[in-house]
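Dihydrofolate reductase family protein
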Amino acid sequence: MGLLTFSLNLTLDGCVDHEEGIADDETHALFTRLMDESGAMLWGRVTYEMMESYWPAVARGDEEAPPAMREWAVKLEAKPKYVVSSTRNNFPWTNSHHIAGDLREGVQKLKDATPAGVLLGSGKLATELDRLDLIDEYKLLVHPRIAGHGPTLYQGGLPGTRQLELLSAQPLRNGAVAMHYRRAR
């Protein structure tokens, strides 16, 4: 069984707005490595639609992008992408698959079928999967910014505190810190 790893950009005040992070070559290289280490990507519908609206065009070369962003886009194009949605069932982007029905069962089957692990990149979906006790690790990139607005990580709340074990903390040249935690069970 593969691990489910939640990975996301956030500011010091917990904002997960994708426009608030530092999108430079170093951060794109970090997320490319995380994707390379995983067997599949997992998103909610909103994140999927945001990604689908931009990254396929970068992978095709239709959008100008620096080499690190293009590398991410090309690898993302090839990576299996799983989407949780109760409102949409057609996901035409290359290698995209729908997870429907019972959330716990669908995500557990994905974990069981993906020995290299699954990389989760949706904040709202992470809250639901954490409530179901399905997240094994957290790889968060904390940016040196205070956004002063939301959305924020876990703003929907959890039923209890999650104890985590720090595995590593790596500062980047841009001031962000890549934090790797494992769920203490």
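thats it. The longest strand covers residues 4-11. Residues 2 and 114 are 5 Å apart (CA to CA). bye
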